[in-house]
Amino acid sequence: MFNCYPTGWVTSYAKQGLLMSDPTVRWAMSNEGALLWGDVDPGDDPRGVMPQAAEYGLRYGVTLSMVSGARSFGGLAHPDRPFDEAEIGAMRTELARLHALTHDSVELDPATRARLAELSIVVTP
């Protein structure tokens, strides 16, 4: 997992254990395509993940999800405007590229895993 969200938000999200309550993560785990964060039904967000994210500048976002043997998904955000269709299309292309690169990846040696961890990149099997 690679994360570039504000540190304060990452810390708050982790301390509250919001991953499985996050409506965008739940959507990504059971759908394919793109979900604009503005389309998240507040009724699907009982822990208020989306309003909390907005407090950290993550106001306009999109979650992308795809399945091709395995599932890959990602969320991206802007502080001041929604993503346009061209940006979303470019993100889909990049997600597909990253998915293909990592789908058949080989086991990394411990030194490489340690270096990636220093960069806040978690490699999962």
Automatic annotation (TrEMBL):
UniProt keywords, alphabetically: DNA-binding, Transcription, Transcription regulation
A GO term, aspect molecular function: DNA binding
InterPro entries to which the protein is assigned, alphabetical: TF_LuxR_autoind-bd_dom, TF_LuxR_autoind-bd_dom_sf
Domain annotation Transcription factor LuxR-like autoinducer-binding: ranges: 2-103
Pfam families membership: Autoind_bind (PF03472)
Name of the protein described by the UniProt record: Autoinducer binding domain-containing protein
Species per Swiss-Prot/TrEMBL record: Limimaricola litoreus
